[in-house]
Design brief:
7-stranded mixed beta sheet, D-Maltodextrin-Binding Protein, domain 2, about 300 residues, about 20% strand, Arc Repressor Mutant, subunit A, 12 helices, two-stranded antiparallel ribbon, alpha/beta, single chain
Length: about 300
């Protein structure tokens, strides 16, 4: 079999995704006949039918489904090659993409990465950080979207089965209150003591939100949300208006308590202490820069 043409594979995946040749052709700025011709070439090269034509579109055959999954991996690999070679052309000797949850992004990670990049010999390394939910972090690593991911790892956290992982830092969740609130002077607080208050929360796919909902349900309560916001900073500002209280990592809230006249009280719950993990597909999938960054993050976590 001759080498497979990446353009043909890209068009085939698009047709499978759209279940329609015309829509896939429009997306690629081609005519439907040109796409059909390339699909016919691909089927002739493979030696089997890849698509079943229906009245209102197409759907992949079993062989087509298998090829689509392999093609996705090939195309992702080609994208990584293109990106990395472009980085070399720009004078960058290494590029690492890292996905992390909001809790990690809001507190320790940016500083840890900055410390890594500031080290002698790392001037030619570029790191791209992107915030995702825990499930999206894991899926992104599985799909090859990023080299490294950091997410909450525990019985209630992300499912890391099939991925390699190393320990990172931990955090503790706390109750954020307006200063002067009846619970603000306590050393610790149980969630049950705060459930009579209205809350400001994060989107439903956030790890903190999932923990809160599970814990409240186990206590036989329903959380009363006055507002849902997209990030911790917005939640802190809402709490500062005295509209509601919130739960977030203590390390995220502490730098803002004085300027916003807030208090943060650690939650006295087993589930409130969370441990994070650095995950990746396999040691062999990590480039030199990604390995250096992973090792640095592990050392920073161990020394904290």
């Amino acid at each position: 079999m001759r080498d497979l043409d990446l353009t043909n594979l890209r068009l085939f995946v698009a047709v499978c995704d759209h279940r329609n040749i015309v829509r896939a052709a429009a997306e690629a700025h081609l005519t439907a006949s040109a796409v059909s011709k390339r699909l016919a070439q691909l089927e002739a090269q493979i030696g089997t039918s890849l698509l079943t034509r229906r009245r209102h579109g197409v759907e992949p055959t079993p062989a087509g489904e298998s090829l689509r999954e392999h093609a996705r991996e090939l195309l992702l690999g080609a994208q990584r090659i293109e990106r990395d070679m472009a980085a070399f052309a720009a004078g960058v000797r290494g590029q690492v993409r890292l996905l992390a949850t909001a809790s990690v992004m809001a507190a320790p990670l940016p500083g840890d990465v900055a410390g890594f990049l500031a080290q002698p010999g790392h001037e030619g390394i570029q790191v791209e950080l992107a915030s995702r939910s825990g499930a999206q972090v894991v899926q992104g690593i599985r799909d090859g979207v990023a080299s490294l991911g950091i997410c909450w790892h525990s019985p209630h956290g992300a499912d890391l089965r099939g991925l390699a992982h190393a320990p990172y830092r931990s955090d503790r969740l706390g109750l954020v209150l307006p200063r002067g609130h009846a619970l603000a002077g306590r050393a610790r607080v149980r969630l049950a003591q705060a459930l009579d208050n209205p809350f400001v929360g994060l989107p439903v796919d956030s790890a903190v939100q999932a923990l809160m909902l599970r814990a409240a349900t186990e206590l036989g309560h329903t959380l009363r949300y006055r507002m849902i916001v997209t990030d911790f900073e917005a939640a802190l500002r809402v709490v500062a208006t005295r509209l509601a209280v919130s739960v977030m990592p203590v390390a995220v809230a502490l730098p803002r308590v004085d300027s916003l006249d807030l208090a943060v009280v650690p939650l006295d719950e087993d589930w409130a202490e969370r441990r994070f993990a650095i995950c990746y597909r396999d040691e062999s999938d990590l480039g030199p820069a990604a390995r250096l960054l992973r090792d640095h993050l592990v050392r920073e976590a161990a020394s904290s």
